[in-house]
Predict the 3D structure of the following.
Amino acid sequence: MSFFDDKINRRRVLQGSALLGAGLAAPMVMRRRAWAQEFRNDPGNAGSITLGFNVPQTGPYADEGADELKAYQLAVKHLNGEGDGGMMNTMKPSSLKGNGVLGKKVEYVTGDTQTKSDAARASAKRMIEKDGVLMFSGGSSSGVAIAQQSLAQEMGVIFMNGLTHSNDTTGKDRRRYGFRHFFNAYMSGRALGPVLQEEMGTDRRAYHLTADYTWGWTQEESIKNTTEELGWQTVNAVKTPLGAGDFSQYITPVLNSGADVLILNHYGKDMVNSLTQAVQFGLRDKQANGKNFEIVVPLFSRLMAQGAGENIKGILGTTNWNWSLQDEGSQAFVKSFGQEYGYPPSQAAHTCYVQTLLYANACEMAGTFYPPEVIKALEGFQFDGMGNGPTEYRAEDHQCFKSVLVVRGNDNPTSQFDLLKVVKEVPRSQVEYPPTLFGGELGPYEV
Amino acid sequence: MRDATPRSDLFFFLLFAVAVLTMPLWTAPFGASYPDLLQKFAIFGIFAIGFNILFGLTGYLSFGHAAFLGVGSYTAVWSFKLLSMSPIPAVLFGMLLAGLFAAAIGYVSLRRTGIYFAILTLAFAQMSYNLAYSVLTPITNGETGLQLTAEDPRALDALLGVDHGAGLPTPNLFGIEMIGFPAFYFCAVALIIAFYLAMRIARSPFGTMLRAIHSNQNRLSYTGVNTRPYALTAFVISGMYAGLAGSLLAVTDPLAGAERMQWTASGEVVLMTILGGAGTLLGPVLGAVVIKYFENIFSAFNNATLHATFDFLPGWLADPFVGLLSLFVGDGWHLTLGLLFMIVVIFLPGGMMEGINRTAKAVRRRREARHGASGDQDSKDGSGLSARAYHPGE
């Protein structure tokens, strides 16, 4: 029995082969056009440029992702000359004119990283291949940031890191096309050291609980080095799986370990859970070795403090930026963010906003969007008025150097956002390190 | 009339091959015509086809197939690091190791059926995930994922004197760099071969045996047939398909992360297969395309895009409309997918293929009614897809 009649079949075969031929030819045409360009996604004479904002919209870091996205949108508004301009008015030196970037209007596309390297890279590739972005940015997990940064290098599109705190991001996994404004675990350790010594003395026994991935490892290492220099002993360092939820099995052994300080190398929801449980187990009311038992959370954020509630009071940690800072830049940013969204920005929002402005500024300085020139403009760039005092983008590893805030959970908050009190602003000189400390290779300008 | 003939199979296969190769053209109106997404379509199509060989034919529901995907990826990246940047050894070793892995897991898991089998495979996959995530960090580089470095030995390339320049090398097939559209065509060819093999398997006596396992394993045992070797073979083949998909993921993007092995990834392929139509040849590929499309395109819509799309509406209408729709796009894409899945499972238990078959049938019936009794011979061109179902009666 014949299944289709011959006339249709012949026509179909012809149609099919025509389609096939066109299909095979199409990418060749597209590719030839791609090679003719001087660099990927050159806007040419177009009236606008596109930036990609790739943040976690679902998953454990979704809260921070939402805040980051708001900051990016605000930055785009300010770059296009809408709103009150925020930090564009306080940034020094600034080449920004408030008419877009190099006279082109800024547009943006968004994506969801799901806090997974694969999803983040897929989303970033969509932005680069389909939406033609000139720069992409985003953060909240160091693993994901590192994965996107190496993609940036492969594709020749600049990646501005959002929140990522691991030493590896600008250490062994640094890339020519990746830049980080946020501070890192090493700086946290350096900044915390003197304050810990002042508050807790030099004869302490520390117990670490560490999130079992890149960021946790580097932070544990950095804090351990600092505290051991002070003369502290490390009783034990236990790795906990990411997203464990219940930390009681890890906290019970702390009680009888002979330790008198618990260091929680956790972030996000993990930190909220482990801290809450540690307090519930009565660690903070305990006496050990004749001293008050203390808890330290080296990387703090206001969003986490909100989650941990009462338990955060009096606990020491570090942060990249806090909305209560009184300098001109911070105030301008808090004001325009507050007007737009009705609450103060988090440190994640701050770093993302600043990164967007810095990229735009570098394009203006270079006078082109050609990535190698933009990279050169960013490398070694010194600026002020962005909330952290004088700051430098170090050319050797693309890490920003600036002062670091040591903070304490506020005992008497005046509002639901007033959760962190700045104990000390540790100057840049104390947290600086040689660029060769963590190894790593930036790679070439031209890819 | 509904049974597949070799001729109709060949025609169907050619149609499929043409459709896959012309994908960059016909996906353009949907905004999906860019290399990365097309690669994902092809790769996850392979993954789902392989999964369907096990689930669709034998009825064994494996909840741990992502483990083989991960093994394939890690093996491929190691092949890039140690041997050569050519995708050929990467793909071969990826399939081989995934097959070995599947043989080991299948040997244990296939002692049970039904929910126990599903739980066993899930347990093994979770175990592999946790091993990759933290215990085997030297091999897998933990959460950060395994990446290429400039200092990797690449013994074969070094032997042949291939120079990769200063930057990180890209996988290349005899000089063609595996990025963008060339990488898509590489995956597309793999998909077409995988599809052809799956078709041959389904039509073979071996395939009949697998379907017999599905319909009544006990009766098969009573008649003296030892079913386990057949099920194990299907499991291993399906694991090798997953390994192929995993290594292709690494070819198009040389990075392997542990989250590829997470249970959500295993669940995703189950969703793809059921959404498209378990037990059909084309269904799993359709399911993979739909899910990857949602994940990549719907998640990228934000309020600004929505406003731009609906700015022809008057303001008082556009705002609530956009407000309502924004629940389903951007970070709400999971919601849309969930709704779609529910609709399909409730109204089309046979997946999207059932929808296509029903439409084809309705069209045919109407045409037959119009042509009267004389129309029965002309009526088949519309039913081309339906005839490929494994279970013609369903």
About this structure: The first strand of chain A starts at residue 48 and ends at 55. Confidence is low (pLDDT under 50) at residues 1-6, 27-37 of chain A.
